[in-house]
Structure formats: structure tokens, C-alpha cells
Design a protein that fits this description.
By secondary structure, this protein is an all-beta fold. Helix content is 2%, strand content 52%. It contains two helices and 32 strands. Strands 23, 24, 25, 26, 27, 28, 29, 30, 31 and 32 form a ten-stranded antiparallel beta sheet that branches. A five-stranded mixed beta sheet has the order 4-3-2-1-20. Strands 13, 14, 15, 16 and 17 form a five-stranded antiparallel beta sheet that branches. Strand 29 and strand 30 form a beta hairpin. The mean pLDDT is 95. It binds beta-D-fructofuranose. The site of beta-D-fructofuranose has 13 residues, from strand 1, strand 5, strand 9, strand 13 and strand 18.
Length: 472
């Protein structure tokens, strides 16, 4: 296999070259899924932002399209570029709505297309500027518009930091024509929830309805005490389109994915009505693992997930289309009398593994990307929580212990523990108890780190299954 193929993920989106961060413009247009991303094509580090672009029909196989937006307008985006935003089809045309970023000035801009690949920036940009901000908001941190349609109108949710202190607000705007926008109120403020989990600036908001409940997604920066510094959370409730206010169903926000590499998720709706989410599979304050490995690109997006809501909790599972790429299934029922067991058939780096067992009094789990000497990515259940420990699969890249482990909850009444691992060479996305919790991590396994083991402190009956994933 050539070096290029070896260093590419099998089914995760990366830039063709260079750096990527947030997913942008995740949407359906012209019989295709469009996924854009924050992109610096020239370097493996963040730089003036372009919008990279891929299209596909099944979330697994993607075609690179030409770069959709470049930093080329001195008046509003040529210095730091086209920051995050979203996309919408409106009256037959396809619009990208993004933040133009120059020195201490962030404004909302649009670009339009009638074929889904060539985008023309609107002459009247920006469509939202300093004059459109409510009092106290700062034009230096006014970004990440998410647009959606309701009742013939297009709404925009956009984040604005206050001029002083670590306060920020999500603002609502609406339009009938994409170019003239009216202010519609404050949707959410990080003062409101009175929780440290809302950090400073609430980046990349998203909002959608699942079974009659509105779900608001926020990626707050600088969350106190958080292992990743920046996190992504959600809160459920109801958006009042009259006042703009979001009435929260509960005070607390919850983290969407408890892993080490998940930030700035964005969602879209498929024609068959599913709500699908993708995120940046990395986070700020760290160098993406592929850049450290010299893969020729930096960063990737998570594999898209279907979202459902149950009792106010967001469930996430990989989109079902991945199953079309399953090649060989292996299943075994194992009685493990404590200790560790090597399962040759489960070894590999690009696969979907599930293990199921009854909750035990001790520790029960799996080690993948393992070299046979105890150095693997360990995921185990113990005392109602699932822990992920990647300390042995990231070499010496991340000296801080805080980025090496992660913990998530299991349902308190779980009769069975189910761990699903979606592995792709440098990443593992873990789904616990059918999507009740999720943890995403990137890893840097050596060639020898390819084996899979299960382990337990006690006697346990485990069902294991593996599907290889092959994307040609
Ligand atoms: C989130 C973010 C956004 C911004 C973009 C810049 O990761 O900081 O707020 O638009 O990245 O690349």
C-alpha cells in the first residue's frame, strides 16, 4: 500500500492537505450531503480560514470539491478568513452563511450558489455588522451563524461575547430574503445556566427539534477544570420565536461526548428525517495527532452520528450507512474466568467491535490497539461508569495526564453493558449502551499495536462481535 493510503483514515473526513477544524455548512442540497470544514490548505497549523468542501450520499464515501470560500475580501475576511457557519437552501439557491474575520472585527456574511460547488460572495456583505449588535456585545467576538428555515422565514443563531468579562450570549436574527436581517432577541446567555460548564465564549451554536423538544448545542471555550479546556454541551427546552428566549427544561447542561477529541459539532437533517451530527475530532490547545505523526494533514471530523432524544437525554449512534461497508462478521460468546484473553479475530485497526456483558462488581473491559505487552487503548466498565485510558497509545505526545483519560456514565438501571467501538487507524469512537454516552479519542498506535484483548477482575460472560470495515 502506498504511504498516502496508509496514512489516510479509511472513513473519516480530513483535508486533502493541511489543517482542518470545525465542520461547517453540514446540509443536504441537490441530492447530496454537503460537508464543509474550517481549513488551512497550506499548512498543518491553523491559518487564514478557507472552507474545504466534500460531498457524498452516504456519510462514508466523500468526494473532494474545490475550496468553497477563501479569505479574499479586504473589507471583511482577508486577514483571518471565513470562520465557521452553516448552509441552507432557500428559494432554489444554496447559501453559505459564515463569519468574516478581520482584525478584531467579526461580521456575518453570505455566499450564494446555484450548482452547489461555485460560491459567490454577496456584494452587500456583511449582512450583520456592529450596528446590528445589541448593547454590551463586542464586534471582536461575534461569530458562528447557524441558519434554519421555519414557516418560510430563515432564522439565524449566532454567538456574541460581551465587551467585558467572560460573558457571552446567543442571539437570534431572522430574514425573508437572506440579505436583510432583523434582530429577534437573546436566545441564551452563559449567565443564565449559572454553571462553570458554559465557559467564556459560547462557540458554534446549533439548534434543532427532536420529538417536539428543542435541543440547543453550544461549544463553550475555557470551561473551568475541564480536561480539554473547551467542551461541547447541550441543553433541552423550547425556543420562543416571539421573544427569542430559550426556555430550558432543566438548569444543567450536559456534555455531548465525554472523550478527549470532540469539539464544535454541527447537525443536519437527512431527507428521511434523521438528525445527524459531525464534530471536529480534536480540540484546541493540542496538536492534532496526524500532524504529530507526519501524515501530511492535520485533524479530522468525527464519523457522523444519528441523534435521538429519550427522557431529555441525547443518544448518539454512528449513522447506519456504515453497515453497508461491513465485510466479515465474527461473533463469539466467551466465559472469562477473570484475567485477560487475547482474541485474534478482533485484532485490527479499521473495524466495528461490540462487547456485551452483565455489569460486574469489578472491572470488565477491552483493550484495542494493543501490542500484547499491556500497551493498548483500554475501555472498561467499573462501578456504573466507563473509563477510557489512552495513555499507552499516544506515545509521549501529550505529557499532561489530563488528556489521557475520560469517563462517562451508564444508565443507572442498565441490565447489560454494551460497548461499541468504531475504530479507524488513529481514532476510536466509543458508544456506551446504545448511544447513552459517547467518548471520542484519537490515538497514535505503533505498527505492533494492533491486537485486541478482553479483561475482567471476575468471572464474566461476554458476547463479542466484530465487523471489518472496508471502504474502497
Ligand atoms: C471553533 C472556532 C469558531 C471559529 C473557528 C475558527 O473551533 O473557534 O468559533 O469560527 O473555530 O476557525
Amino acid at each position: 500500500m502506498d504511504k498516502e493510503k496508509q496514512t489516510r483514515y479509511a472513513f473519516h473526513v480530513t483535508g486533502q492537505t493541511g489543517w482542518i477544524n470545525d465542520p461547517n455548512g453540514f446540509s443536504w442540497y441537490g441530492d447530496k450531503i454537503h460537508l464543509f470544514f474550517q481549513h488551512n490548505p497550506y499548512k498543518n497549523t491553523w491559518g487564514p480560514m478557507h472552507w474545504g468542501h466534500v460531498t457524498g450520499t452516504d456519510f462514508v464515501k466523500w468526494t473532494y470539491e474545490k475550496i468553497a470560500l477563501s479569505p479574499d475580501r479586504p473589507r471583511y475576511d482577508s486577514i483571518f478568513g471565513a470562520f465557521s457557519g452553516s448552509a441552507i437552501e432557500f428559494q432554489g439557491k444554496y447559501y453559505l452563511v459564515y463569519t468574516g474575520c478581520n482584525l478584531r472585527r467579526q461580521t456575518q456574511c453570505i455566499a450564494v450558489s446555484d450548482n452547489g460547488v461555485d460560491f459567490t460572495k454577496y456584494d452587500g456583505n456583511p449582512v450583520l455588522d456592529k450596528k446590528d449588535l445589541p448593547k454590551k456585545s463586542s464586534i471582536a467576538n461575534f461569530r458562528d451563524p447557524k441558519v434554519w428555515e421555519k414557516g418560510g422565514k430563515v432564522y439565524m443563531l449566532v454567538s456574541a461575547k460581551n465587551k467585558y468579562g467572560g460573558r457571552s450570549r446567543l442571539l437570534l436574527y431572522h430574514t425573508n430574503n437572506m440579505t436583510e436581517w432583523s434582530y429577534g432577541g437573546v436566545v441564551f446567555s452563559n449567565q443564565k445556566a449559572k454553571t462553570a460548564a458554559l465557559g467564556h465564549m459560547m462557540e458554534c451554536p446549533d439548534i434543532f427539534t427532536l420529538g417536539g423538544t428543542d435541543v440547543l448545542i453550544i461549544s463553550p471555550q475555557k470551561v473551568k477544570g475541564h480536561k480539554n479546556r473547551d467542551a461541547s454541551v447541550y441543553v433541552t427546552g423550547k425556543l420562543n420565536y416571539g421573544t427569542g428566549g430559550f426556555e430550558c427544561a432543566e438548569k444543567n447542561v450536559r456534555e455531548i461526548d465525554n472523550g478527549t477529541d470532540f469539539y464544535a459539532p454541527q447537525t443536519m437533517q437527512t431527507p428521511d428525517g434523521r438528525r445527524v451530527m459531525a464534530a471536529w475530532m480534536a480540540t484546541w490547545n493540542r496538536v492534532p495527532i496526524n500532524a504529530l505523526l507526519g501524515c501530511g494533514y492535520a485533524g479530522a471530523l468525527t464519523f457522523p452520528r444519528e441523534l435521538t432524544l429519550s427522557d431529555g437525554r441525547l443518544f448518539q449512534n454512528p449513522v447506519r450507512e456504515i453497515e453497508r461497508y461491513y465485510t466479515e462478521r465474527y461473533e463469539e460468546k466467551i466465559t472469562l474466568l477473570g484475567g485477560t484473553r487475547y482474541i485474534e479475530e478482533l485484532s485490527g485497526k479499521v473495524q466495528n467491535i461490540t462487547i456485551e456483558f452483565l455489569p460486574t462488581g469489578g472491572k470488565t473491559g477491552i483493550s484495542v490497539f494493543d501490542d500484547g505487552k499491556g500497551n493498548g487503548l483500554k475501555i472498561y466498565y467499573e462501578n456504573r461508569t466507563v473509563t477510557l485510558d489512552r495513555s499507552k497509545v499516544i506515545r509521549d505526545f501529550y505529557p499532561s495526564p489530563s488528556a489521557t483519560t475520560a469517563v462517562c456514565d451508564t444508565p443507572s438501571d442498565a441490565k447489560k453493558i454494551k460497548l461499541r467501538l468504531l475504530m479507524d487507524k488513529y481514532s476510536c469512537e466509543v458508544f456506551v449502551c446504545d448511544g447513552y454516552s459517547a467518548m471520542t479519542t484519537t490515538v497514535a498506535p505503533l505498527d505492533a499495536q494492533i491486537k485486541t484483548y478482553i479483561f475482567s477482575d471476575e468471572e464474566v460472560f461476554v458476547t463479542v462481535a466484530r465487523d471489518r470495515i472496508e471502504v474502497k
